Amino acid sequence: MSTFLEVKNLHVSFPTEDGAVLASNDVSYSVALGETLAIVGESGSGKSVANLAVMGLHNPQRTKISGSAILHLPEGPIDVLSAPNETVRRLRGKAMSMIFQDPMSALHPFYTIGDQIAEAWALYNEGSKADGIKRAVEMLDLVGIPDASKRVHEYPHQFSGGMRQRVMIAMALVNNPSLLIADEPTTALDVTVQSQILRLLADLQKEFNMAVILITHDLGVVAEVADRVSVMYSGRVVESAPIDEIFYNTTHPYTRGLLNSIPRVDNNGIGTRLKAIPGQPPSLISVPKGCAFEARCEFASHVSGGLCHAVNPDLVEKAPSHFGRCHLTGQQVIEIANQNNGVK
Amino acid sequence: MLKYVSQRLFYTVLLLLLVSLSVYFIFDLLPVDPARLVCSKNCSPALLRDTRHKLGLDVSVIEQWLRFLQGLFIGRDYGVAAAAIHCPAPAFGYSFSRHECVSTVLSHAFPVTLSLAVLAFILWMTVGVSLGVLAARKKGSIFDRVSTVFVLIGTSLPTFLTGVLVVIFIILKFNLVDPLEIGNWSNPLTDPIGWLQTFIWPAATLAFAYAATYTRFTRSNVIETSSEDFIRTARAKGLSEKVILRKHTLRAALAPLVTLAGLDFAGLLGGAIITEKVFGLDGLGGISIEAVTSSYDLPIIVGTTIVASTFVVVANLIVDITYAFIDPRVRHA
What we know:
The structure holds 2 protein chains of 2 kinds.
Chain A: E1 3-16, E2 19-32, E3 36-40, H1 47-55, E4 64-73, E5 76-79, H2 85-89, E6 96-99, H3 113-124, H4 129-142, H5 148-151, H6 161-173, E7 179-183, H7 191-208, E8 211-216, H8 219-225, E9 228-233, E10 236-242, H9 243-248, H10 253-260, H11 307-310, E11 316-319, E12 322-324, H12 330-343
Parallel strand pairs in A: 3-8, 3-9, 6-7, 7-8
Antiparallel strand pairs in A: 1-2, 1-4, 4-5, 9-10, 10-12, 11-12
Helix pairs in contact in A: 3-4, 3-6, 4-6, 6-7
Chain B: H1 2-29, H2 34-39, H3 45-55, H4 61-74, E1 76-78, E2 85-87, E3 94-95, E4 100-101, H5 102-137, H6 142-156, H7 159-172, H8 192-226, H9 229-237, H10 241-269, H11 273-278, H12 284-295, H13 298-326, H14 328-332
Antiparallel strand pairs in B: 1-2, 3-4
Helix pairs in contact in B: 1-4, 1-13, 5-6, 5-8, 5-10, 5-12, 5-13, 6-8, 7-8, 8-10, 9-10, 10-13, 12-13
């Protein structure tokens, strides 16, 4: 698999009156064609901010961005963070597309969905309006909207939430992009509809051999579709590993906390209380000099000399292609966790 | 859609009937007897009864109203036999202070009011909307701040002040219009320059107040719409900023302006009382204020009230239908 997007040392900050909000702090990740990278984290962890920067969708007047985000296009690599706005605009919808969290508000209420899809198509294709609508019908068919040739002339409010997200997907894919960024695409939907949408995304990814970045806070969603996972906390990537490694060999206390906070149906899960991570993430305005998770971390007391408080750990390879940002080794984390469970 | 329109039409007719009926009831309650005013000093009970009969005031309010409705469709005779004065349909009544059918008075006053309203409307829409859009696009800039000052001044200065200032410091000071010609009616088709000379200043005065409101409204709507999710979607598609503004932002941001503009315009068609007075225009506003303050000319008051409310009600209907065309969510609701 060839890497398509390579994000390196991405910093995104928003100047405010109280100081700059460092929403994305030295973030690096990459995704290859045909691969799904899940970016996981709670609200405000910087997962959307980083990807909106890649898409060039931040307001340049109110955002400071540094680092690089290289798209490996067939005609050569291009850094979308330093390329002129107009160049990046011409990549949007064609090389990279994005779908958003709330399909209820993401479509223009005054235009038919056919018009909106055809508008995206016409940006990169020669042809009449009728050709665009024909293409829209094909796409609607593809994303599983029944009776597409009739529904293409309907307005967004005539569709249900799940159907609207399908429309969004159809619109995002109408120009065969190589990269699809899905920003919490199922958060606003019913659970049954969620898995339909995820399956649809997975099928389409195979069909188009796309690189997919799935932004989510739902580890259940991750387990279903992702190849690799990057966990973000307080603007930083804290753990990054292939999917099985994340679920079975977690090396980072925060990821452990996330996993413990979701319900399980196996024997270990039934009858026990869900374990929430205590406390709140730190403010992104005054970033602590040590580990951002230290204040909430039940493992921090096992690190001697107040190291966690003083020094922010680097992202290092804990196991083959498994990166973590913690002063403890993966093995130590597992041992301490087992001890703690034993005490209870 | 057809059902929606016919339903609305039905309610519009019903509403107009109710409005006219209530106007009759209100004027019946007033402690002024038009007949007594008309027959003035040498009034005998017999003469009073006669006048009352001539004016059609010797029957119940309901019957007066029914006659009024009838008159609207087939015209009406005032007085008896040879002395009768015929007002052709639509007859709103007969003004005994002006010795004219109310419809004739209205038909002379209406072009004045219409001219003022149309010219003011064009001015304030152009200025208000473009200032609002520019201010929103350059939010926080010097331009935006200057436009805020404009909005503040425009909304806080009443037209009786700005109007007088315009008359004294612009028209008279620079001799732009012959003082004797102020408020003179010229036909826009035969004498467009004269028409413009008469109406440009009152229209500008009126437009100044409205444009300020429209600037503020447009600015806030454009800013609000710009942060909508569907604008982000449009950007994610790869559309250029120009297309996004024209096709996506403005379409959604200006839709509510249709409602506001329709109703404001309709309101002005009923007469801009203060502005007309300041600039000496004999429009609907001018004649109603005269009818109310000096001659107690009830038929005129009834006529102008009904005409003004008809405009508002009809404008409401037009606005609703237009809005259904603009916003599909209304159409399907």
